[in-house]
Each structure stands twice: as structure tokens, then as C-alpha cells.
Design a protein that fits this description.
Chain lengths: 182, 303
């Protein structure tokens, strides 16, 4: 983030930051059972739109990638591809215990255990399943991180791309993805 | 000094159009939320979305035409706006309006969509291609009743100048909505198609086409398209106020009249499901076209 000579944020950066944290376009990648908690979060009962959280259907328009649940090796490949198509700055929310430590799939042969090794996660929401209240509190946490300038997972991904690629290629055997120029 | 005043008038028009456009869109989001028993976003939410998209640090593009598509859309919106006299009196918001502006507007209003179609075509996304073909088919549908309604007005007033049409509607009884109600019905149904609210939102169909033509546009490109959408919404509403509601003599009156017109597609959109493309075209070629022909007959009979 740009600083002025008094080492505080410039006014333009303040406005940008305010807009970024109050307008979050979400791409909900329904990988696991967590996807069932997303519709109640978005619709009348819990109404995430009042925080500026809106669902989007394509990665190009989205800011937040919501990984809802376990990731099999096959889906991980698609998720990485989706994540790399998103435009900077972009954030990832890991949703449910499965993204933290594998959850109930901890000894499964074809799911990944720790999502953070394959892509940078900004906020984890624990629980199996997390209810819509905790999903919204996770988004509020993300807004606080953006406000403090700490939601910079996308920068870490670019800086440590080799480390992430090595980890990704370790589990994805048939790696035939194009190189992106994001 | 005179030139400076004119130029600042252009910028004031664009500023007013953008502000009113995003506020109306925010209002429609709140209205939809209230109907669905939700709280809804703040009214300035669309401005935040646009600022956020403009401040994205990367924006991928797949070639020159995708770069130009959103630029075409903004150009067409601003051009359309600047050829519409915003107020009927005063010389601040008159802009470029001239004798034959109604015919010119008929052409320039589709320019943005054609530019968008070219831009979306280059992305290579199948959803974009399907969305473009649906959108342009829908244009073919609603342009016919729209042109019929405008022809009726042009024949009735014997002019193609928006200024003279506005000047002829000097009292409420002389408003075209009451003088020629058939033309208003035809034009307002065509307007539903132009605004892309349900039941005519099949080109963008978020749940089905991943938002259609703009599905491969992110960051600044999407921001440009949303900016253009805000300006174009206001331009269309002002055009309809000028044509049917006798124009407005100050900005407050304009705001009230445009809001009243804007509520029609929004409220219809909240309560209706979506037409498929062929259903939409059949609908446009049946009912509003019949009203359009009726309006021309009405004008012939009136004169």
C-alpha cells in the first residue's frame, strides 16, 4: 500500500481500501458439503449482501475464493486454475475443518489435508459445518484484515510461487496446466 | 468564457448522470432486498463496487478488441447522453442536441452493445458468445416496437428534434403519455428489454451463463462497463422523460420523473421469472409491436 511522507496511508489509498473491504465479490467453489451453508448466508435469513458480499459466477470478476470443504486432488487442480484466473488483489477463505487439517477426511487417500500448503489462505472458518453466522464473522475478519493491510496472501503466492508449485505438483501427478501471466 | 461554460456543462451532465445512475441502481438493490425480506446493501454500494473494480491491480485481457469493447461501451453511453437535452429550459444541460437528434439517437444507442459484442467475442469464452447472440437477438426483438413508437411521435409532432417534441408538451394534458398512450406502452415494453431486468435478462442470466458477455472481463474492464451502465441508464431514462413525460425544467423534477419511470422495469423485474430468447422475441414481435402499429394508426386518426 502506498504511504505518504508522514508514513500514513494516502487519502486515495484510504478510499480504495474502504471500497475493497465493503465490496467483496465471492466465488463460492462448492467442493464439499460446505456449499450447503452458502445459500442461507446469501439469502433472506442472514443476508450477506448488507455487507457488500455478493456472489459472482466467474473467477475474473471475483475477489474472494470461498473453498467450501474438503478438496480432492482432482478438484485441487481446478481450484488452483480458478484462483490463478482471479484478478489481484484476491483473497481466499478456507471454510470448515477440512481445509485446516483434513477434518473427517484426515486419513483419506485422495484428499489434501492442509490447504495452506497449496494456496495462500487469508481466513479460516472452523467448524464442521460452520453455520452462516460464523461464515459472516469470517468475512468480517477478512474485512478487518484488509483494513489493516494484512490480507496479502496473493502477494505471498507470487513471491513464493516455486514453493507452492512444488507442493502442488507433488500431489497432482498429471500436471498439464498452462502458464498464466496474471 | 462561453466555451468554458459549455465544456463544464458537458462534465456536469456526465457527473449528474453517473451519480443518479448508481444511486438508482443502489435503490433498486435495496427495493429487491426489501421485497425478499432482507435489509439490503447501502444505497452507495454500486459506487463502492465501481471504485473497487477500478482499483484492482491487475486486469487481464485477451487482445486488442477486448480492450476496446468496454471503451466502446463508455463512448456510446457518453455520446448518447450528450446528444439528449437533459432539461427543457436553460442552457446548462443542453449539450449537443440538434434538429435531427432523435434519428441519430436511434443509431448511437446500439453502438455500445455492438462494441461489447466484439469485445466479448474475442475472449473466446463460450458463455460470452452465447450471451452475445442472445443479447443481439433481443435487440432485434425490441428495436421494432421502439422504432414504431418513436415514428408515431415523430409523425404526430412533425419533427425529429427532441427540443420541439418537449416544447409541444407544455401542459400535463399535452404529454405524449396521454396524447398517445399506445406509443407509450410499446416504448415502455421495449424499455424493459433495454434495461435487461427480468423477464428479459436472458443475455446475462447469472445462474445459467456465468453473467454472459462480461464473464471474461475483470478488474478495470468490468469497472468501465459498470460505469457505462450507470451513465446509459440515466441517458435512456432522460430520453423517455423527454419523449413521453414532457421533459423537466429542473433537476429535481427530472429526478422524480426518471425515478417513476425506473420503478417500472425494477418492480416488474422483481416479480417475474425469465423469458427464454425465443419467447422474448415472440413476445416483442407480438404485443408491443401491435401497440406500436396501433399508435401509428392512432396518430393518423388523430390528425
Amino acid at each position: 500500500m502506498e504511504m505518504n511522507d508522514k508514513d500514513t496511508l494516502t487519502i486515495v489509498e484510504h478510499i480504495k481500501n474502504f471500497a475493497r473491504r465493503h465490496s467483496l465479490f465471492v466465488l463460492a467453489y462448492g467442493t464439499g458439503c460446505g456449499a450447503i451453508e452458502v445459500p442461507p448466508t446469501m439469502t433472506s435469513r442472514y443476508d450477506a449482501e448488507r455487507f457488500g458480499i455478493v456472489g459472482r459466477a466467474t473467477p475474473r470478476q471475483a475477489d474472494v475464493l470461498l473453498i467450501t470443504g474438503y478438496l480432492s486432488v482432482k478438484t485441487l487442480k481446478r481450484v488452483i486454475r480458478t484462483y490463478e484466473q482471479m484478478q489481484n488483489p484476491k483473497y481466499v477463505i478456507g471454510f470448515g475443518s477440512c481445509t485446516i487439517n483434513g477434518g473427517m477426511y484426515w486419513d483419506s487417500y485422495n484428499t489434501i489435508k492442509v490447504l495452506d500448503q497449496y494456496m495462500p489462505v487469508d481466513v479460516y472458518i472452523n467448524g464442521c459445518m460452520p453455520r452462516p453466522e460464523s461464515v459472516i464473522s469470517g468475512f468480517i475478519k477478512l474485512q478487518q484484515l484488509i483494513k489493516a493491510g494484512k490480507a496479502d496472501g496473493w502477494k505471498k503466492y507470487q513471491e513464493n510461487l516455486d514453493w507452492y508449485r512444488t507442493n502442488q505438483k507433488k500431489v497432482i501427478k498429471n500436471w498439464n496446466m498452462p502458464d498464466y501471466n496474471w | 468564457m462561453e466555451t468554458l461554460k459549455t465544456i463544464s456543462g458537458y462534465f456536469a451532465t456526465i457527473g449528474v448522470a453517473f451519480t443518479v445512475g448508481f444511486l438508482f441502481m443502489g435503490f433498486s438493490r435495496i427495493l429487491t432486498a426489501r421485497v425478499q425480506n432482507r435489509v439490503g446493501p447501502p444505497i452507495y454500494q454500486n459506487l463502492l463496487d465501481i471504485i473497487k473494480l477500478w482499483s484492482k491491480e491487475s486486469a487481464i485481457n485477451h487482445g486488442l478488441m477486448q480492450h476496446l469493447g468496454p471503451a466502446f461501451a463508455v463512448t456510446a453511453s457518453v455520446t448518447t447522453l450528450l446528444f439528449i437535452p437533459v432539461l427543457r429550459i436553460g442552457n446548462w444541460f443542453q449539450n449537443f442536441s440538434f434538429e435531427g437528434d432523435l434519428i441519430f439517437l436511434l443509431y448511437i444507442m446500439v453502438f455500445g452493445q455492438l462494441g461489447m459484442a466484439l469485445g466479448a467475442g474475442q475472449t473466446g469464452n463460450p458463455n460470452s458468445a452465447i450471451g452475445v447472440s442472445r443479447g443481439l437477438s433481443q435487440v432485434v426483438g425490441y428495436e421494432i416496437p421502439f422504432v414504431l413508437a418513436l415514428t408515431a411521435l415523430m409523425v404526430y409532432h412533425e419533427t425529429t428534434s427532441l427540443h420541439e417534441i418537449m416544447a409541444a408538451q407544455d401542459s400535463i394534458g399535452a404529454w405524449n403519455i396521454f396524447v398517445n398512450p399506445f406509443a407509450f406502452v410499446a416504448a415502455i415494453i421495449a424499455f424493459l428489454g433495454m434495461t435487461h431486468y427480468t423477464p428479459f435478462d436472458v443475455p446475462f442470466a447469472p445462474a445459467e451463463l456465468a453473467s454472459g458477455p462480461p464473464s471474461e472481463f475483470g478488474g478495470k474492464y468490468l469497472g468501465m462497463m459498470m460505469t457505462s451502465g450507470s451513465i446509459f441508464a440515466f441517458a435512456k431514462l432522460t430520453l423517455f422523460v423527454n419523449l413521453f413525460l414532457g421533459g423537466a425544467s429542473n433537476l429535481l423534477e427530472l429526478l422524480a420523473k426518471t425515478l417513476a419511470l425506473y420503478l417500472i422495469p425494477v418492480i416488474i423485474g422483481i416479480v417475474t421469472p425469465r423469458y427464454r430468447t425465443e419467447q422474448a422475441i415472440v413476445f416483442f414481435w407480438k404485443w408491443p409491436t401491435a401497440f406500436g402499429i396501433l399508435s401509428i394508426l392512432w396518430v393518423v386518426w388523430m390528425r
